[in-house]
Amino acid sequence: MLQITNDVTLLPLLGTMVNAYLIGDVLIDAGIRQSAGPLQRMLRGHHLSAHALTHAHPDHQGASHAVCTARQVPLWTSAAEAGAMEAGTLRRAMPRNAVVAAEDQVLTGPAHPVARHLREGDDVYGFEVLETPGHAPGHLCFWRERDRLLIAGDVLVNVRLPTPLTALGEPPRMFTADPERNRTSIRRLAALDPLTVLFGHGPPLRDPDLLHAFVARLPGS
């Protein structure tokens, strides 16, 4: 576990190849299905009031059912991601290819009811909800203006997948519903000028200049 601020903790589920976050008493994302045991051990001694998802891909919702059931907390997603979460299959929520089909079989967590649909401008433990579609239709980010801290989910990654090497980049196209729309979301996030960016995949980024330089190199910039 890595303390980012006094009320934000990174929960590394596969090194920092797959991350979840604890913001106050709200869990953001939950890794793959096999993350349930490690994640619940990390959460011991921490009060949990809710669990929210950036998006309902298998490396983010995999242990959601296990955590919500064990801790008796509600699950929150965007309206666009709720259907996939409640169906327990992501076949209609992700691009169709052999890798996605295999992941859906092996990594996707069980279905779980969504208690609240998060929308643009909602508050989650002092973080503003941002609707950032592209990688997933209902992808959400979480932004805190006072210390310019951004939980970016998979709009960006900070690892050269499938290796553990640190590298700022776009999410893999094979898992991205609409790459061009995702680039619009990347530009929106960069315009916030965050001091710290937290990712679903990869270590934190604390260099705003690196983010702006990356965005400047995107096609169409």
From TrEMBL:
Q: Name one GO molecular function term.
A: hydrolase activity
What Gene3D superfamilies does the record point to?
A: Ribonuclease Z/Hydroxyacylglutathione hydrolase-like (3.60.15.10)
What UniProt keywords are attached to this protein's entry?
A: Hydrolase, Plasmid
Q: Does the keyword Hydrolase apply?
A: yes
User: What superkingdom does the record give?
Assistant: Bacteria
Domain Metallo-beta-lactamase stretches? 17-201
Q: Does the keyword Hydrolase apply?
A: yes
Which CDD domains does this UniProt record tie to the protein?
yflN-like_MBL-fold (cd07721)
**Protein name, entry field:** MBL fold metallo-hydrolase
